[in-house]
Amino acid sequence: MERGVRYARELEGHVTWLDTFSGTALGVLSVASGIYTYLGVSSLLDEDGAMSVFAAVAYSTAVSVGIFVFWSYLMRLFPAVRTNRARGGLLAAMGLGSLAIVAMSSWLNAAALAGSAAVEQHLAKTVQDYQSSLERAHEIALTGQALERDVSRVRQSFEDLSQQEAEGSLSGLAGRGAVFRVLRQKAAELTALESQIRSQTPLVESAFSEGNTILSRMRALTVEPGSVEARAVEFSEAAVRLQGLITQLRQLSVAQLVERAAQDLAASVVLPELDSSTAEGRADQSATITSVLQVLGQRAATLERAAQAVQALEHPTDVTYTPISSADAVILYARNFVPSWAGAIAIDLLPAVLVFILAITHGAIRGGREGAGIEDTMTLAELRAAVIALRDVEAMAQPVPPPTAETPVPGPLMPPPAPRPDAAPKEAAE
């Protein structure tokens, strides 16, 4: 029992010493949180006038006072309560208050700690999205340009057939008759289409090269020193130009052009007049033209399927750069800034640890004094005060002795005798 009382007194001495600066420490934490809250609020305000500064100072001051008062209440009241119901109620109040503090202060503290880095992370993420979109648009454009080889192959086949017809190997009539003119007509159409596709290649490469130049500048803006707001403005301008180039690359794809040309290749055939001098020759020419038209339909279908396959490729994702504030960036990329979030929350909720420490310590003090009598718990000062009080009580309780002849009986108070008139001159004479 005596050991428990001595243990409790030791803990009380420590708590008394800690109380001398606990309030100051709590005030420092509250002020620090208020400063970072001010920085976070300032980053959200669009204007830089006196009213904006006053609003930020007022908000940060309110946060500092609220944190200080909230934790002061809990540091005093939570260790003092003894019932489970009271402790549960205060724990619920602590949880609700902690959520309120995180909502009004911690996220702004995180914005002040990692706001610029979060905005740079947003810029870097946007650069990656634009790069993927540009490369995808370039890939689709190159795949469309590859249709030139298919067109060239079909054109070459019709030129070879026309050459065979000129030698008389198809219809049996050598020369440049009706069958030859049909074959040369379609070869000319394919030649024009091939030239049109070939003319798009320099435009595709030029757009892709310019897009890479813009991307290089955008990457540099994400890591350059200086204000991130100024860099974000230039980044936004570059993003607009890059988006235009991506759109241009999508429009340079020749897949739709090849598909329409393939459809027209078989549908629009101008049949020349059969020019053979004999009926048998004209019949041979007609049969040959029919076979040519069948081959033409097959080759057109092949070209059309190739063009449709290019169009079926997954299109690049539409990327739009949206400027974002530092506070929103910290929330959007919270996973990348866990240490900053931990520090921002810890500076606000660290007093909760002190509350639990005091609660445990006071519980230990009460446990050490439990079952001990008052004589075991009194200190030397308390004992001295008790002895003095006891003496005073005994003096008051002692009976007064009866008066005797030698003991004058106190009578009523009488006024002092007045001085005689002749006394004053005598004293003066002397």
Mean pLDDT: 79
Termini, distance in Å?
Answer: 81 Å
Number of strands: 0
* Reported CATH architecture of the largest domain: Up-down Bundle
Annotation field: number of helices: 13
CATH topology of the largest domain: Ferritin
Cα Rg: 50 Å
Profile the largest sheet: none
Share of β-strand residues? under 5%
* Total number of domains: 2
Which range best describes the helical content: under 10%, 10-25%, 25-40%, 40-55%, 55-70% or over 70%? over 70%
Following the backbone from N to C, one meets helices and strands in this order, namely HHHHHHHHHHHHH
Q: Tell me, what's the shape?
A: rod-shaped
CATH class assignment of the largest domain? Mainly Alpha
**Low-pLDDT sequence parts:** 423-430
How would you characterize the overall build of this protein?
By secondary structure, the chain is mainly α. It folds into 2 domains: 2-116 and 336-377, no CATH class; 117-321, Ferritin (Up-down Bundle). Helix content is 78%, strand content 0%. The model is unreliable at 423-430 (pLDDT under 50).
Key structural traits:
single chain; 430 residues; mainly alpha; Ferritin; 13 helices; disordered C terminus
How are the elements arranged and paired?
Elements: H1 2-44, H2 50-77, H3 84-145, H4 147-166, H5 178-223, H6 228-251, H7 255-267, H8 279-311, H9 326-332, H10 338-369, H11 374-377, H12 380-397, H13 423-429
Helix pairs in contact: 1-2, 1-3, 1-10, 2-3, 2-10, 3-5, 3-6, 3-9, 3-10, 4-5, 4-8, 5-6, 5-8, 7-8
Offer a concise description of the structure:
By secondary structure, this protein is mainly α. The protein has 13 helices and no strands.
